[in-house]
Amino acid sequence: MLKKDLIAKNPLRILTQDAKGNPIAQRMGLVIARAGLGKTAILVQIALDSILRDNKIIHVSIGQSLDKTRVWYDDIFKDIATASQLENAAAVEEEIMRHRMIMTFNVSSFNRPKLEERLNDLVQQDVYRPDCLIIDGFDFATATREGLADLRELMEVMGMNIWFSAVSHREDDRVSAIGVPAPCHDVDDLFDTIMQIQPDTEHGHNKLNILKDSTGCVAPGTTLNLDPVSLIIQG
Known about the structure:
This protein is α/β, with parallel strands linked by helices and about 240 residues long. It has six helices and eight strands; from the N terminus they run H-E-H-E-H-H-E-H-E-H-E-E-E-E. The protein has one domain (about 5-225): P-loop containing nucleotide triphosphate hydrolases (Rossmann fold, 3-Layer(aba) Sandwich). Strands 3-2-4-5-1-6-7-8 form an eight-stranded mixed β-sheet. A hairpin with a 4-residue loop joins strand 6 and strand 7 (about 205-215).
C-alpha cells in the first residue's frame, strides 16, 4: 500500500472534513475512557493521520516521559505499516519524525501561560508552527472550566486543532445530557468532538463511540472498532 492509499483508507478520515468537504482547521476534541483502554493509542493515531496529511503536530505529554511517548508512536506506526503492508515505510517514518514534536510537562506545572510561552518561542523564531496539538494526561478532575476555556481560546488564537485525553471512573456515574461521563460531563459544551472508548464484551474488543460532533464531519452515534491487541482503529 502507498502512503496516499493509507490516508484514503484510514477510518479516521471521517474526522478530517466537514459536511461540505472543507478541512477542519480548528477543533477542540476529547477522547475519554477508563484507565487502560487505549486513550493514548487513539491520540497517537489522530496525530499520525494529521502528519500523513502534511500537518505538523506537537504532542504534549503531561506526567509521562519523552521516551515513553516516543515508543507509543514507534509501536503504533509499526503496527499500521505492517497491517497495511505500507511501501517505503522507513521513508514515511522519517517524515513523521520531522513533522512531530514532543513536549513534556509535570502535572503541577501545566497551564496555558507556560504552554503558550513554549509554543510562541517556536513560532516566533520560525522553528515550528503546529497545526495540531495533542494534550495527553490533562487532569480534568482538578481542572476548572475557566482553564479549559482558556485553552480553547489558545486554539482559536493559534488556528489549530487540539485533542485531549480524559480518564473516567466506573464508580462515578455522573453523565451529561449527551452521554459524556464525569469528570467532563459539565464541560462538554467546550468541545467540538467527543469520543468515548468502551469495552464491547460481546465481540471481545473495545469500540470508539462518537458522542458529539459539531463540526459536521461525522454523525454522533457513529462507532469505530479497535483491534483488541494493537488498539488500531478498524472502522
